Amino acid sequence: MAAPAESKQRVCLVAIDGSKHAEIAVKWFKENIYKEGDHVLLVHAIDHRHSMAYGSVAMMPGNPDAIAQQFRGEEKKAEHVMVQYKQKCIDMGVSKCTKFKVQSSLFSN
Asked: What is the pLDDT of residues 31-71, one digit of tens each?
């Protein structure tokens, strides 16, 4: 008799950004895609390019501290968003959920 096939754990990625659209997407994922035992990766991409835009307060000549402060603020906001969405997943019954943060390169096109 053949051995039973092993069940593979699915890994699902859900992009989040704190918007109403992201909230709807997480709810839709739970209702339509999620299966018990899935491992869910909540991904939030941080894009620092707007902090480096010409005319930005952070880009004032000779003020690297302002740039660093702007980046830290964006990092803090991203962490807050990820914590909120992880809690939403737990509240919806998604037991295996991991936060994952991605940062853009300032020098890529």
From this structure: 999 999 999 999 888 877 666 665 555 555 657 787 778 78
Q: Which residues are bridge partners to 15 per DSSP?
A: 43
Q: Which helix (H) or strand (E) holds 40?
A: strand 39-46
Q: Is 4 part of any domain?
A: no
Q: Is residue 22 part of a domain?
A: no
Contact predicate 90/99, CB 8 Å: no
Which residues does residue 97 pair with via DSSP β-bridges, in sequence order? 40
55: tokens are 């005319």
Evaluate whether residue 25 is within a structural domain.
no
Q: Are 16 and 85 in contact (CB under 8 A)?
A: yes
Residue 62 belongs to what H/E stretch? none
The CA distance from 84 to 103, in Å, is 19
Q: Is residue 108 classed as helix, strand or coil in its secondary structure?
A: coil
DSSP reduced 3-state for 28 = helix
Q: How many domains does the chain have?
A: 1
